[in-house]
Design brief:
heterodimer; A: alpha/beta; Ubiquitin-like (UB roll); Alpha-Beta Plaits; 4 domains; five-stranded mixed beta sheet; 12% strand; globular; B: alpha/beta; Rossmann fold; de novo design (two linked rop proteins); 3 domains; 16 helices; 9 strands
Chain lengths: 623, 397
């Protein structure tokens, strides 16, 4: 059930016959790279060969997550005997070619490409959100650009589209590399962005050039992570957050999700895969947040609610023989995925768990239970969420997200925006001492922590559901459910429920089947299976909109790649393994909140009011 | 089919020579594929669209590939300014083109041939379709063609939508697949991964029209015409300042001077060979020969007499390229605009030679850095006109 290659023929790499061994005749080809003889596997691209041999080839339209475009013409190299230069990204080596990567012709052509792009690129680097993290700027520096050889646009030509709560489009910065187009269509299979018009008039557009808020954008922000310039960036509310912090009448509470903590170091020059949780706590307190809580707490809460909802659905289906119950149950913590299903499969919304995402649950709890306990007027509480996500900005602005009587979450900040705030405050994150989270929501289980990686919600839910049903921990060494982990697009496994507790005797012998998918392209595959009736004996499906799950979210540090995402996931799993509590239901604060506040238990009346939500049948046709 | 321009001198050594309808097809389906490829190699026939790739190699590569399906596409997206020879072939010699397609399909192992017809030629659809229907009735199309049980072939017409760049074979295929008409990366080449991912041969109308004659008379016969490296004959679309504009079939290797004489051109200042993307020759170079080795062309010859303003000619060409660039790759999308801006600077007498030379260098980069033939050849008129007519263009300074 792995996703079929959907990219247009033009963007697929050439299919080269694969050989079983590396030594067989024809498996390798000897080439000359800048005068050096090399044996390389048949069919490997020049770019890959160069990277493996520490030769830097400049690229712009190339992104390792995306199919090949070959349109920016930055990665040109010279091949002896060929009239034209060739793009290293798209050229597979199949013959004993002689390649020069920095001949005069090559350097001149690359410089010309940069000059031409700069001539069309509006704005100055110092007034740009991507200053110091812009691929065009980097190339200009690498090639010693010190003047605009072919002029420079001095007036903006496009209106900035800031209609979306999540993604802002500034087409004056666009260099038409079309990474966003390939991200949206091929990687995520949403298809909001496409090149329109021809030649010099080419531009990236939404359907009928409508504002992004009015099209079927799911706000995943993956286009932002792959934009080489600042043409796409997140809608940044940090000025409003500063304002709240500086307002003495406001009690500003921050919740931090696990994924930003695993990636924040990258914003401060550290290699990927170093968790910064403790330092971040110190930083945000110094900035002036009144409290910092761990979103993992509400992730545990989500597991309790979503897990109970699953058991309720199973009971209704198996015991009450209620045909209207929808199974399998789909997770609902990824707001990108929620908007995706609302647009693309509105008739299947009943399969979605009604549980809110951890971010929104936390907001509702802070403005009710926490306000009550601390005796603070919820009207004066400002809740801020540090998320790896662009879609969380949209989610917290959904009009129905006000069950506390107030806007549950006031502002969503991305990892990048929080890093900016920390820099503005003059703090060097890696140098700060570590500190803990604040009470009463300072404790969280490891189950909540692994929400950050694809498969994490499933693993956390299974740990709790299995134990609730059987009274025993999940039968995996060290509680690690490996079937849920890893970067495979769609993962599938099952756990047999045996010797169930009396309350759950109806589940005796049931093989609990589940699927984990990440990236909406894979979600689509799963949905098509559902429509075809192939998921009848499945029970629980986890879907995350972003490739890699939250660690690859649209609010995470730029750049992104599979290698970077793997390192971030590794950091999360490593941190989790050492935590004292690793099951949501064993989190003492969870027990506390169900004892003190949500007294009618998970999926009870109050839970339903505060922690569950409804969805909107949006469809694909928009007025 | 009635043609809307005067029929002049419709005689020639190959295409305009006598031909008995269907004779080549009937002969071909009884030949082995190898024998056809052999004759084709002997003939030395090269692609007539302008790039000049050896036809036998293209066919051989496709014939040798194993695939469930293969396609043969006749590129009738004749969009190069100043070229109108394919229209003459399609209106006056459609059977040559269709038979050439069927023979090509037989040789490479394709079951389907598609005519990609220029949007402006859509008035021809009915006429060509009626020819296809006739051939069906005569068992020259469909199943068991001419009694060969192993060979079936169908021909369809695909109307283009009017983009010049879709004459580039991979952009043509993209547009047929329903995508934006933008060129693909090469490799992979269409012979390997073409229409819908299947091996595909894309041949020009004129190339296919030559096939029946080669089958009937043999490769050796064809090789006798033209020069050593440019064998056979070529259709020339002659236009501009001359008494006898039109389509002529002439052997390769003819000099510009002789072409001008045939066309009845007087007081000629410049000849643009190869359409807008070709090069512009001044009088001093009229003794050059038209051939793949000297002055290559897809057939267009535009004649400009002494009254013409060469800067205006150049501006017209560059405006065309700015309009028709697909916008995908940087050098072509922005480069052409910069070249046009340079021309406007000269027009207004607001230029420095330093900047103009910089633009010429940019043109040289575009030739090697653009993704497809459009951007690779659009600097040709810019460089050749500014070089060859500098006295006329830069006198004001």
């Amino acid at each position: 059930m792995e996703k079929e290659l959907r990219s247009p023929v033009s963007q697929r790499p050439q299919e080269i016959r694969k050989y079983d061994s590396n030594s067989g005749i024809g498996a390798e080809v000897t080439i000359e790279l800048n005068g050096e003889k090399l044996k390389v596997p048949m069919g490997k691209s020049i770019l890959e060969i160069c990277r493996e041999n520490n030769i830097h080839i400049p690229t712009l339209c190339y992104h390792e997550d995306l199919c090949i475009a070959g349109n920016c013409r930055m990665c040109l190299v010279e091949i002896e005997g060929m009239r034209t230069l060739q793009t290293a990204c798209s050229y597979p080596v199949t013959t004993p070619v002689k390649i020069k990567t920095f001949s005069n012709k090559v350097r001149k052509a690359r410089r010309h490409v940069i000059d031409l792009l700069l001539s069309e690129h509006y704005g100055e680097c110092y007034s740009c959100i991507r200053n110091n993290n812009c691929e065009l700027q980097t190339l200009a520096r690498e090639y010693g650009v010190d003047s605009y050889e072919f002029g420079h646009v001095c007036e903006p030509r496009f209106e900035i589209d800031n209609s979306s709560a999540a993604v802002i489009r500034d087409m004056d910065k666009c260099i038409l590399c079309r990474r966003c187009v390939r991200t949206c269509i091929d990687l995520q299979e949403v298809g909001v962005l496409e090149a329109v018009n021809r030649g010099y008039d080419t531009k990236i557009s939404t359907f009928l050039d409508k504002p992004l808020a009015d099209v079927i954008c799911i706000n995943c922000g993956q286009c932002i992570n792959r934009c080489p310039t600042a043409a796409l960036h997140a809608n940044d509310p940090s000025d409003l957050v500063w304002k709240a912090i500086e307002d003495p009448s406001k009690h500003v509470v921050l919740q931090t999700a696990p994924s930003p903590r695993a990636a924040m170091g990258e914003e401060f020059g550290l290699p990927a895969g170093l968790s910064m949780t403790g330092q971040l706590n110190t930083a945000v307190k110094r900035i002036g947040f009144d409290k910092v809580f761990d979103t993992n707490f509400s992730a545990d809460l989500t597991i309790m609610e979503e897990g109970t909802e699953l058991l309720n659905r199973l009971k209704k289906a198996l015991v009450d023989k209620d045909d209207s119950v929808k199974l399998p149950q789909f997770t609902s913590c990824s707001p990108g995925w929620v908007k995706f299903i609302e647009h693309f499969y509105p008739e299947y919304l009943d399969y979605l768990s009604t549980a809110k995402s951890p971010q929104q649950m936390f907001g509702a709890i802070i403005k009710t239970f926490y306000a009550q306990e601390e005796n603070i007027d919820p009207a004066n509480i400002v809740t801020v969420a540090l998320m790896p996500c662009a879609a969380k900005k949209f989610e917290c602005n959904r009009p129905e997200m006000n069950s506390s009587g107030f806007k549950d979450v006031d502002y969503g900040l991305t990892t990048r925006e929080m890093a900016k705030m920390i820099r503005e405050a003059g703090l060097v994150l890696p140098d700060l001492p570590k500190s803990g989270f604040d009470d009463p929501f300072g404790e969280a289980s490891g189950a909540g922590l692994i929400f950050g990686s694809t498969g994490g919600v499933m693993e956390a839910a299974l740990r709790t559901v299995y134990e609730l049903v059987t009274g025993r921990p999940v039968p995996f060494s060290n509680l690690n459910i490996d079937a849920c982990r890893g970067v495979k697009g769609i993962k599938e496994a099952s756990i047999k429920l045996e010797n169930c507790k009396e309350d759950f005797s109806f589940l005796e012998g049931v093989d609990l089947k589940f699927i984990v998918a990440h990236g909406t392209a894979n979600a689509k595959v799963v949905m098509e299976m559902l429509i075809k009736g192939e998921l009848k004996d499945y029970h629980f499906i986890e879907i995350m909109a972003c490739p890699g799950g939250c660690i690859g979210g649209g609010g995470q540090p730029i750049p992104t790649s599979e290698a970077i995402r793997k390192l971030r996931a590794k950091a999360i799993y490593a941190e989790e393994a050492n935590l004292p509590v690793r099951k949501s239901h064993e989190n003492p604060k969870i027990k506390y909140i169900y004892d003190k506040f949500l007294t009618d238990g998970p999926c009870g009346k109050l839970s339903h009011k505060l922690l569950h939500t409804k969805y909107i049948k949006r469809g694909k046709y928009i007025n | 089919m009635k043609n809307n321009f005067v029929k002049i001198n419709r005689t020639g050594p190959v295409l305009f020579s006598d031909y008995k309808e269907n004779s080549a097809l009937k002969k071909a389906v009884r030949m082995s594929r190898n024998d056809i490829l052999f004759e084709l190699r002997e003939s030395g026939l090269k692609g007539r669209g302008g790039a000049g790739f050896p036809v036998s190699t293209k066919w051989m590569l496709t014939a040798a590939t194993n695939a469930d399906k293969k396609y043969l596409i006749c590129n009738a997206d004749e969009g190069e300014p100043g070229t109108f020879k394919d229209r003459v072939l399609l209106t006056e010699y459609p059977e040559l083109v269709l038979e050439g397609m069927i023979i090509a399909g037989y040789t490479i192992g394709a079951q389907e041939g598609i005519i990609y017809l220029r949007a402006e030629y859509s008035y021809l659809i009915e006429f060509i379709q009626s020819k296809i229907d006739e051939m069906h009735k005569s068992n020259l199309l469909g199943k068991s063609i001419c009694g060969n049980k192993d060979f079936e072939f169908e021909i369809k017409i695909f109307p283009g939508s009017g983009a010049y760049v879709c004459g580039e074979e991979t952009a043509l295929i993209e547009s047929m697949e329903g995508n934006r008409g933008e060129p693909r990366n090469r490799p992979p080449f269409p012979v390997n991964t073409g229409y819908l991912g299947y091996p595909t041969v894309v041949n020009n109308v004129e190339t296919l029209a030559a096939i029946p004659h080669i089958i009937n008379n043999g490769g050796e016969w064809y090789h006798k015409f033209g020069t050593d490296k440019s064998t056979g004959s070529k259709l020339f679309s002659i236009s501009g300042d001359c008494k006898n504009p039109g389509v002529y079939e002439l052997p390769w290797g003819i000099t510009i001077k002789d072409l001008l004489e045939i066309a009845g051109a007087e007081d000629t200042k410049a000849v643009q060979v190869g359409g807008a993307s070709g090069i512009c020759l001044p009088e001093s170079q009229f003794s050059k020969k038209v051939s793949y080795e000297e002055i290559s062309t897809g057939g267009s010859v535009m004649i400009f007499n002494k009254d013409r303003n060469m800067l205006k000619v150049l501006k017209n060409f560059m405006e065309f390229f700015v309009e028709e660039s697909c916008g995908q790759c940087t050098p072509c999308r922005i480069g052409n605009v910069k070249l046009l801006e340079g021309i406007e600077m000269i027009e207004k007498n607001e230029y420095s030679m330093e900047y103009i030379n910089k633009l010429k260098e940019l043109g040289e980069t575009m030739k090697v850095a653009s993704k497809c033939g459009l951007g690779q050849s659009s600097p040709n008129p810019f460089i050749s006109i500014l070089d060859n007519f500098k006295d006329e263009i830069f006198t004001k300074n």
